Amino acid sequence: RNTKAGEEALNYDDYLIAFDEIKKYMWGVSIGNINRLEHIEFTVKFGKTEEHIYQRLLREKRCGEVVRLDEYTALFYADVYDSFELCPWIRSFICRITRLNCSNRSLENRFKQDLQNMYETYGIGGGE
To answer: Rounded to two decimals, what is the model's pTM?
Structure first.
């Protein structure tokens, strides 16, 4: 709906209630497709002296959940309207991610292609 400055929102409370429901599945500002949630999850490994990685997951999870799988492994998962919004954050865990799965295959394929490009750019192995 188009609104103008100074215009009274007659159904403001209804919009607020609707938005409170929607924001449960928003990572950032994008709603993407409000009719379909995308599921994303990844597993992160960290070392004996890297408890801060697990704490970071807990602190930054927003609308997602974090499950400790064992002493040095955690699983993050979320259902969101736009999984691409998580990409920059997920990339910050590169070299610790042991598994990534997303119902949006475009995101998963792009993430893997970005990794492959990085391997090629820096001439490092493990690109498969």
So the answer is: 0.85
